[in-house]
User: Which sequence fits this backbone?
């Protein structure tokens, strides 16, 4: 299982396309830790001429020595690694002027440098140095330079950013995203579709985390042994992520905790953390750039809408701060059974919100096709026009629109068994009536997602877990979209 390589067809296709071009290539690959960047490039290199180099935080001197050793292996020259290279430029000059390197070849030589931000930490001039290496040495050779990085902030600012010396030199870039939900069945062939959804709610589509779960254990056994248990990989992983990415991990912990408990507005987060507004705003901006939170406003709200919400966008962060961090005293005392009982009791509530995120993911990735192509999708909420007493606000789980065709889709997500689609549809139609977008000319569509239905409706798209299972590779009907019995 540890060698499982799932999907990544588009990413491999992108790398092969760049390799097959008639020009030297400078490609940047980045994404959050454990998302599978290294596995991707190693798979790419299996049948291609190239070299994989892993940077460390030991500084220029040790990294140059390590790279020289690997270059010697590529060239078939033991003496190459024994020579002394005072700086990065001399190392790459020697490489590109070596007889074995300059010999005429039809295929490009691939040079992959993993964890490139480590080089920058050791020497802030590294971006300028590699700019010169690319322009004066590598760009004149038949090479494909690939820079990888797990620090999203460093890669976007120090490599891709406008102020970086490397800005504009890249010929391609790709941010590696977590795996799509539809591939989880390849990690857990014996799990039910509900089990797979539960796994997604805990670790999302991060390959390294999926591989830590044991497919022979039940879902909650995996939660206890692989996440709650002191010393387990996924128990300690959060501390490593926070320490590696942030200078002030304590303050970020407080913010993650507040958001995981349901405090989503800036003022609420300030009250819960005890941090001042300017500090929290700065931290939230950082988390937004790292794609660990999403700044949310009603999908149909005007651009100047101010009362935004801040939500965790990473399932592992959401689960860990809700259940591991809040119960750390009990877990330190190794009372795993008691904490697991708390998780089981609260999990339906947690999963209900996570299910909304999963449905949005399914629609965005095309695993489930809506009744029309949409240009915007997200949660919608607001005030009920004219309401004076009682409930004067409404919220719709998801709304998708197409401005060109004036189509609008209203979606309700129910993580429940035996849902009556007719009852939910009636409530959804009422809430849809509060949405002003293109009233009078829009074409309305409705969809309901649930664990199962007691009764469907012909007036909306009804999608339950059995329908979802049909979209998974190897589990019945493969493909996308609703079954023929469902209409929209």
Assistant:
């Amino acid at each position: 299982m540890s060698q499982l390589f799932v999907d990544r067809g588009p990413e491999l296709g992108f790398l092969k396309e760049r390799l097959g071009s008639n020009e030297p290539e400078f490609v940047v690959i980045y994404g959050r830790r454990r998302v599978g960047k290294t596995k991707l490039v190693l798979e790419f290199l299996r049948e291609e001429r190239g070299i994989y180099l892993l940077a460390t935080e030991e500084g220029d001197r040790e990294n140059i020595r390590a790279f020289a050793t690997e270059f010697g292996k590529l060239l078939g020259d033991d003496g190459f690694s024994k020579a002394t290279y005072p700086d990065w430029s001399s190392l790459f000059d020697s490489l590109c002027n070596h007889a074995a390197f300059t010999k005429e070849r039809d295929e490009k030589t691939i040079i992959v440098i993993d964890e490139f931000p480590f080089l920058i930490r050791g020497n802030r001039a590294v971006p300028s140095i590699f700019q010169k290496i690319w322009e004066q040495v590598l760009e004149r050779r038949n090479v494909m330079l690939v820079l990888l990085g797990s620090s999203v902030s460093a890669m976007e600012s120090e490599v891709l950013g406008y102020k970086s010396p490397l800005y504009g030199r890249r010929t391609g870039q790709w941010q590696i995203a977590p795996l799509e939900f539809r591939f989880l069945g390849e990690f857990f062939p014996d799990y039910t579709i509900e089990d797979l959804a539960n796994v997604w709610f805990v670790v999302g589509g991060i390959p390294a985390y999926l591989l830590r779960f044991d497919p022979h254990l039940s879902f909650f056994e995996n939660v206890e042994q692989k996440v709650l248990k002191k010393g387990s990989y996924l128990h300690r992983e959060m501390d490593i992520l926070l320490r590696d990415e942030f200078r002030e991990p304590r303050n970020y912990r407080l913010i993650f905790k507040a958001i995981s408990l349901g405090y989503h507005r800036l003022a609420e987060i300030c009250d819960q953390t005890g941090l001042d507004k300017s500090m929290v705003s700065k931290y939230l901006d950082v988390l937004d750039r790292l794609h660990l939170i999403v700044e949310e406003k009603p999908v149909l709200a005007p651009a100047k809408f101010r009362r935004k919400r801040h939500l965790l966008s990473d399932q592992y962060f959401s689960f860990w701060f809700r259940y591991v961090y809040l119960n750390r005293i009990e877990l330190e005392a190794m009372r795993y059974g008691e904490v697991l009982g708390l998780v089981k009791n609260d999990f339906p509530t947690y999963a209900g919100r996570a299910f909304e995120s999963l449905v949005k993911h399914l629609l965005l990735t095309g695993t489930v096709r809506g009744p029309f192509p949409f240009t915007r999708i997200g949660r919608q909420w607001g005030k009920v026009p004219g309401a004076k007493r009682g409930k004067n606000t409404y919220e719709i789980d998801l709304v998708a629109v197409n401005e060109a065709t004036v189509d609008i889709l209203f979606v309700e997500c129910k993580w429940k068994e035996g849902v009556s689609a007719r009852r939910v549809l009636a409530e959804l139609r009422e809430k849809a009536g509060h949405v002003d977008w293109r009233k009078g000319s829009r074409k309305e569509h409705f969809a309901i997602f649930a664990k199962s239905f007691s009764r469907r409706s012909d007036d909306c798209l009804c999608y339950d877990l059995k329908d979802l299972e049909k979209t998974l590779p190897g589990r019945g009907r493969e493909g996308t979209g609703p079954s023929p019995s469902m209409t929209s």
The chain has a mean pLDDT of 92. The radius of gyration is 25 Å. Residues 109 and 362 are 38 Å apart (CA to CA). Residues 336-365 form the longest helix (30 residues).
